Amino acid sequence: MDLFTGVGVALVTLLDDDGEVDAAATGSLAADLAGRGMQAVLACGTTGEAGTLTDAERGEIIRAVRDAVPPDVPVLAGTGATSPGRAAELTAAAAAAGADAVLAWPPPGSEDLVGYFATLVAAAAGLPVLAYHIPWISSPGVPVSALADLPVAGLKDSSGDPDRLLAEVAHYPGCTYVGSSALLALAGPLGGTGAILAVANAEPELCCAAFAGDASAQHRLIDVHLAVRQGGVPALKRILAGQRGTPALSRVG
Asked: What is the mean pLDDT of the chain?
């Protein structure tokens, strides 16, 4: 199944001036981005600083985002963890909080990817599960050669590797979502299912245009892409603070 097609946002988690999670403001940001063309919202992913969130904060954010965006915009929840048991707990909790699907990286060094994702599928209670290839967090990640055997609906690939993207689009029958804003004008025209992007917090319209094949839009994304690639979530939050006046506080360095 195609959970969604087109561009979705890997949502930041907004904090208040005291560094506490501001679920209402995060939901409002999600609603604004949905109104500006985002076809899905990923809450509590790596861009959402998931590793710094308590279980209660995760549930609050997922519920706030689900309540804020239109019913036809799916809300995905990040549930990757360093052990299958913990990932299953996060997956079940995300489903209970109202997520429409989950996105999970495997434990670093995992050799039983089929078993890991089967565990998450069982915990997801019928919701689609997407595998997440992000090798700097979960090395070695999810090999392209393993994808066809995994019990998942698709994959988000944040590697930024164009050769890997070509192999996914050509040889993987599931949904392929690119996670790098550097590859949009390649991924869309080649037939990628969609994208799930941190940069879409700041430039949703340009991301949509680039995925549709607009080389000019891809070029106009270069500076913000490079800034976020180098500076991570703190850099992205500073950009948003300049655009929207939101606090630039982050829990990650």
From this structure: 97
Domains of the chain, each with CATH number or no CATH: 6-244 (3.20.20.70)
pLDDT of 95: 97
- CA neighbours closer than 13 Å in the CB half-sphere of residue 138: 22
Give me the catalytic one of 116, 132, 177, 237.
132
CA 125 to chain centroid: 20
Percentage of the chain beyond pLDDT 70 is 99
Q: Which residues contact 115 (CB under 8 A, 6 or more apart)?
A: 84
For residue 78 the two structure tokens come to 């990040």
Q: Which two tokens stand for residue 201?
A: 């917090």
Q: What is the value of pTM for the model shown?
A: 0.97
Nearest alpha carbon to residue 168 among 192, 152, 149: 192
Of 116, 156, 177, 237, the catalytic one is 156
Distance CA 132, CA 149 (A): 15
For this structure, is 237 an active site residue? Answer: no
Q: What is the pLDDT of residues 102-144, one digit of tens each?
A: 999 999 999 999 999 999 999 999 999 999 999 999 999 999 9
Task: Tell me if residue 177 is catalytic.
Answer: no
Rounded alpha-carbon distances, angstroms, from residue 141 to 44, 138, 150: 19, 5, 13
CA–CA dist 104, 164 (Å, integer)? 19
Residues making up the chain, counted from first to last: 253
The residue type at 206: L
Give CA–CA dist 207/239, Å, rounded: 16
What's the pLDDT at 2? 58
